[in-house]
Specification:
The protein is mainly alpha-helical. It has helices spanning about 1-5, 10-20, 25-40, 40-50, 50-60, 65, 70-85. It starts with a helix and ends with a helix.
Amino acid sequence: MDRADSDIPDDLKEYLDEITLNPGSGFMEAASSSINEAVSETEKYIADHYEEIESYLAYKRSEEYETAPAGRLEKELRRFNSMSGYWH
């Protein structure tokens, strides 16, 4: 991602480093457990987490998300993937 790295604004590079270099204690275990639950019992997981999922999807569609570092980074990564032929 060297070329894309140079195209990503510095503040987003810092944000990416912040969220990937030190995910915090227990984060990987909790994420893994949640993913396993979602995959092994998908219908139950969706039913149990329906409100959280709906809230997350609404946030992802909001202007607040689009202007937040996570939304801006997602947009940059989609652009990179599109330019690289990974995303159509």
